[in-house]
Amino acid sequence: MMHRSRIIPLPALLVPVFMVLAAPVVTAHPHIWIDSRVEIELEGTRINTVRAHWTFDPFFSQMIIVDYGRPRNGRFSDDQIEAIRRGAFENLRHFDYFTMIRVDDREIPVERVDKFHAYLDEDGALVYQFDVPLNIEVQGRSVAIAMYDETFFTDMVFRDDYVSVRGGNTLRYRTDLRREVFQVPIWGPMNRETVVVEFERRG
């Protein structure tokens, strides 16, 4: 699993200023690395669900195993998964689950997620899987999905297979992985990877 940094560094001359004015933030360089991908589930011409898959770095994966127990026969028990959700995932509700969704120019708040699941992949890496329920009409619209941590404590990038679309065979679409500039308090303009799916209008 390869992790590729997507963060534009601050100019070197600005670093001493931020060390004085915002020392707690400066220390928030990445400690956790995540490779992500998303599945878009269509029902007719509407997005029913966006399913996220986060694959963690070996160090964090091992931390979860130490804290919550090694899965038996390669699978976490339901009790272990619930403990991981409560202890190492649910707090992300305060940060929109590190997920931004935009339909055309309208931001869609990520207020809750469903069907949290945790497992180890074939390489022994921890994977979080969860659904973002939407039920949004997308015919003739552009859907953008970004996953990032503004504190940079967690470095998140999309995998090469960053998106798949299921269902909705009546809609044609194009996918792209772009960099977008966004404003972060204290840091200023930074860039993030954004998956963009453009759905064509029928007829």
Q: How would you characterize this protein structure?
A:
By secondary structure, this protein is an alpha+beta fold. It has one domain: Acetylcholine Binding Protein, Chain: A (Distorted Sandwich). Helix content is 16%, strand content 46%. The chain has helices at 15-21, 23-26, 58-68, 78-88; strands at residues 32-43, 46-56, 99-103, 106-108, 114-120, 126-137, 142-147, 154-166, 173-184, 188-199. The strands form 2 sheets. The protein has a 5-stranded mixed β-sheet with strand order 5-6-2-1-8. A 5-stranded antiparallel β-sheet has the order 4-3-7-10-9, with no helix packed on it. Strand 1 and strand 2 (46-56) form a beta hairpin. It is globular and about 50 Å long. The N and C termini lie far apart (42 Å).
Strand order of the largest sheet: 5-6-2-1-8
Poorly predicted ranges (pLDDT <50, ≥5 residues)? 4-27
Reading off the top of the CATH hierarchy, the class is best stated as Mainly Beta
Helical coverage, percent range: 10-25%
Radius of gyration over all CA atoms, rounded: 18 Å
**Class of secondary structure makeup:** alpha+beta
CATH topology: Acetylcholine Binding Protein, Chain: A
Total helices: the number is 4
Which outline best applies?
globular
> SSE order in H/E notation?
HHEEHHEEEEEEEE
Number of strands: 10
Largest sheet report: 5 strands, mixed
Distance between the termini: 42 Å
Write the layout of secondary structure elements.
Blueprint: H1 15-21, H2 23-26, E1 32-43, E2 46-56, H3 58-68, H4 78-88, E3 99-103, E4 106-108, E5 114-120, E6 126-137, E7 142-147, E8 154-166, E9 173-184, E10 188-199
Parallel strand pairs: 1-8
Antiparallel strand pairs: 1-2, 2-6, 3-4, 3-7, 5-6, 7-10, 9-10
